[in-house]
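Quick log. Single chain, no ligands specified.
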Amino acid sequence: MISNTTIQKTLKVKHAVSEYFEKHPQEKTVQAKKLMPWLIEKGIFNTDNKDGKPIRQLLRDLNRENMLHLIPQARGEKKEININWFFDKV
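-> predicted structure:
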């Protein structure tokens, strides 16, 4: 079950990703972990550890609960063991 706090954080991520693509119109796709400095600057996460773990964990949790649709820009590419997470301009 996803908490209300996590849903609020998810909606903040959604808006921050939209803002990122508005400010970087040349970008079409960006790895989720590469947006960690932007998400920290926006006050969504406090720190980055393990190469984007906070955003990757949020996306995994949303995916597990079938709620990834809350961030329409998010997509995962399933690899043999892990999922590589990306944000696409919509």
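The chain is about 40% helix and 15% strand.
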